[in-house]
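Q: Hi! First time doing this. I have a protein sequence and I read that you can turn it into a structure. Is that right? Here it is:
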Amino acid sequence: MDTKTRTEQILVIMRVLAWIAFIGLTIKVGAILTSYAVSCVNPTAAKDLYRGLDFYKLSQHNFWYYSQFVSFLVVYIGLKAYMIFLVIRSLSKVNLANPFTNEVARILERISYTLLAIWIIAQLNNTHASWLLKKTDMTLGDLATGEFLFMAGLVFIISQVFKRGVEIQSENELTV
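A: Yes, that's right. Below is the predicted 3D structure, encoded as structure tokens:
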């Protein structure tokens, strides 16, 4: 009979929750892309791009601006999905008997860079939305930015701790 420790159970639950988030985000990206493609043929579809997102006025004003705004949104959500995918990979690579591995450290570092990219895209989107507000007098809403920069720094520090843990773990294996 296989008895798992509480930590192992938490890791399994976190992996399942991460899969749910990943699937949800990929569906969201697919729905937005599909709605955008439909709105290219039928412009009234921009009234409900995805769950209440109404960019109809913007698409009527200038289709290029509309396309840019949707592109920022798709990249933002796509990067979040990629980050969750990396979390899934890191959770599946964690071995509690030997927790510090180069692979997990690299994945954590990649997660921090992805979080930084999400922050940059959100900043660009918000700047673009402000510019569009001045140019078209349409309010489009901002994407969250602050927490992604903080999380990027935090995960980067954790990845560096993991790298140091790998060094210490390999030194201990050599001395035994």
